[in-house]
Write a structure and sequence with these properties.
Layout (H helix, E strand, L loop, with lengths): L9 E7 L5 H14 L6 E7 L5 E4 L1 H10 L11 E3 L8 E5 L5 E6 L2 E4 L10 H8 L3 E2 L4 H8 L1 H10 L7 E5 H6 L1 H9 L5 E5 L9 E3 L5 H9 L4 E6 L3 E9 L8 E2 L3 E5 L9 H6 L4 E4 L6 H17 L5 E9 L4 E7 L9 H7 L5 H14 L6
Parallel strand pairs: 1-2, 1-7, 7-8
Antiparallel strand pairs: 2-3, 4-5, 5-6, 9-12, 10-11, 10-12, 13-14, 13-15, 13-17, 15-16, 17-18
Length: 374
């Protein structure tokens, strides 16, 4: 079943989800709902609980949730939703109050606003491919590679991009040879950053300044992921650059870079509280104060990083700009924060694309792109 020729496309916004970034996803959804062009698109909003159940929701419910507490949780209840089953039928499946299955409106494109595992790691993208639903953002493989900080660095190195020194520690390695793991980490020198390989929003990340802090940091990171990446500390400014795809396989575009400056001495790096809770711990500067040659080089490298993971749709590339003038790629994020204050949206606004137009362009790209083998 499809829409009439002259009807508006229907966009399904997905938010919440099963990852540690559940609450940030709800905030993102509020921002997108407030900026999307409702005259151009029909919008269906679906909230996903922390245990993976899908329910219809709306902007008012999400606003109530996200204004009550910083770590909001989408509640169970309401009309439950199931994805279409493919085979050319793109209607949502809904469960009514009598536990009977009924059909909702056809969905033309899905806008995943889910951060972290089970949202931007390829699992959801595979589900949408199987359901024959078009969607915003990277495909299955690129999403999975970009979610895993280990394999992402391997892809960057293969593309000739400079990455900082790092080690990978799996749960098996830590259980069978913890001392060997410690010795490998020691060679990086302190400080190091202990990170879950497949988490985001700084969950589970600890800055470790000495060996006596290492075991506790590893245990903390293992709460989020059995696989860890330990990165050597790099002295340099942290600069970000947004990437936006183009139709017809043209070269992706890069925004002017932006910089987040952590000002609060209580935050030694840009952790979760500095990002989402504290109102005074960090400031943003966009465009970043960089020499013109460095700005253009970073924009070029951001696109190269996007291409290294075979990206589609959008990404945000994070770099270190060192004192000796090197640009070291840290990571790319294939579904970056999309709130009204997020850097991805802010960098594009400072590069000439306003928030509603940015949302429109991402949806348009997704509608034009075919499904399959991504």
């Amino acid at each position: 079943m499809t829409h009439a020729v002259d009807s508006k496309p229907t966009v399904a916004l997905l938010c919440g989800g099963r990852s540690s970034e559940h609450s940030i996803s709800l905030i993102t959804a509020c921002g997108v709902l407030g900026a999307i062009d409702h005259e151009k698109y029909n919008v269906v909003t679906i909230g996903i609980t922390r245990d993976g159940k899908w329910y219809l929701t709306d902007e008012n419910q999400l606003k109530d949730l996200t204004t009550q507490e910083a770590l909001a949780t989408f509640p169970e209840g309401g009309q439950q939703v199931f994805l279409p089953l493919g085979a050319g039928d793109n209607r949502l499946r809904l469960v009514n109050e009598n536990d009977e299955l009924e059909y909702g409106e056809p969905i033309d494109v899905v806008f995943p606003l889910l951060h972290g595992p089970f949202g931007e790691d390829g699992t959801l993208q595979g589900l949408l491919e199987m359901a024959d639903l078009k969607y915003v953002g990277c495909g299955v493989t690129s999403s999975a590679v970009a979610m895993d900080k280990h394999f992402m660095k391997v892809a960057f190195e293969a593309a000739g991009l400079e990455v900082g020194p790092y080690e990978v520690i799996t749960m098996r390695q830590w259980a069978t040879d913890a001392q060997g793991a410690r010795e490998r980490i020691e060679k990086l020198g302190y400080p190091v950053f202990v990170k879950p390989a497949r988490a985001g929003s700084s969950f589970g990340i600890t800055k470790v300044d000495s060996a006596d802090q290492l075991d506790a940091a590893i245990e903390e990171a293992h709460r989020f992921d059995p696989k860890l990446v330990i990165e050597a500390g790099i002295v340099g400014r942290e600069i970000e650059c947004a990437v936006l795809d183009t139709a017809d396989n043209g070269r992706p575009r890069a925004s002017y870079p932006g910089e987040i400056v952590v000002q609060d001495v209580e935050h030694s790096f840009y952790d979760f509280e500095a990002k989402y809770v504290s109102k005074t711990s960090a400031t943003t500067q966009c465009p970043a104060d960089l020499p013109e040659s460095v700005t253009e080089k970073m924009r070029e490298l951001a696109v190269e990083a996007f291409l290294a993971v075979d990206g589609e749709g959008l990404s945000r590339a994070d770099f270190f700009y060192t004192e000796d003038g090197r640009l070291v790629i840290n990571e790319v994020n294939t579904l970056p924060g999309f709130t009204p204050i997020s850097m991805y949206k802010t960098m594009w606004e400072n590069s000439g694309i306003q928030y509603p137009d940015l949302i429109d362009e991402l949806i348009t790209l997704a509608l034009k792109r075919p499904l399959g083998l991504r």
